[in-house]
Structure formats: structure tokens, C-alpha cells
Amino acid sequence: METFFKKNQADKQLGLGILIVAIGSVFLLRNSGLDIPHWILSWHTIMLGAGLWLGYRKNYQGSSWVALTVIGAIFTLKHIVVFDFEISRITAALAFIGVGLYLILKPKRLKSVNDYTQKKTVDFSDVNN
To answer: What is the pLDDT of residues 62-117, one digit of tens each?
Structure first.
């Protein structure tokens, strides 16, 4: 248990360190005069990153991280222009395809009756005495 706690704490420190280095690098590049797109440090990109981070922390199980990721991705894709083509034209279609793929590919857990009942063994050796 202690090893798991230490590993979990080390993962948190590593993730936080990477996040701080990435944000600092973006600020450094922007202040150096390099043209960094404004959407890199916007609320929707932060929401997208938080959703992906929560998914990573929970091994992409559950659905709470999906909502943050989808909302962040939709608003982030609206601001990205690739080769004079606005990705916002296909954002809704990409969102529906992504949610559909998630529903298709998510791990399925079928619950049986045995999951709800606890099996208890009975020891009849005391009855004969």
C-alpha cells in the first residue's frame, strides 16, 4: 500500500512538473516574439487538457472526463485554422463521431447474479461432533 501511495505521489509530481514546464515554455516563446496562437492558453484548451488528465488518472474509465474533453475540444477546434480551412465546419461531426466511438469501444462490464450475492461456504464438520 505504501509503495502504491509513493508511486501515486510521484506521478502527481511528474504531471504537475510537466504542466508547469509546458506553460512556462509557452510564455517564454510568446515573450520572445514568436507568434504563438492565442488559443494555446485559453479556457477551452485548459478544459481539454484537464479532461485528458482526469481520463489518464482514472485509466479512461467512467465518463466524467469525456464531457470536459469534448467541450474543450469543440471550442478549441473552432479556433484552429489549417491551410485556410476552418476546422469549425466539421467540429460537430467530429464530436458525434468521437462520442460514438467512445460508446462503442468503452469496456463493457456485464453484471451477473453472482456479483450481487456473496458466496459463503458452510463448514459442516462441527455438526458430526
So the answer is: 778 888 888 888 888 777 776 666 666 777 787 788 888 888 887 666 666 666 66
pLDDT, tens digit, for every residue of 4-29? Answer: 555 666 666 777 788 788 888 888 88
User: Using CA atoms, how far apart are residues 93 and 101, in angstroms rounded to an integer?
Assistant: 12
SS (H, E, C) the chain: CHHHHHHHHHHHHHHHHHHHHHHHHHHHHHHCCCCCCHHHHCHHHHHHHHHHHHHHHCCCCCCHHHHHHHHHHHHHHHHCEECCEEHHHCHHHHHHHHHHHHHHHCCCCCCCHHHHCCCCCCCCCCCCC
Spatial distance between the Cα atoms of 106 and 60, rounded to a whole number of angstroms: 9
Q: Answer yes or no: pTM beyond 0.85.
A: no
CB distance 55 to 65 below 8 Å: yes
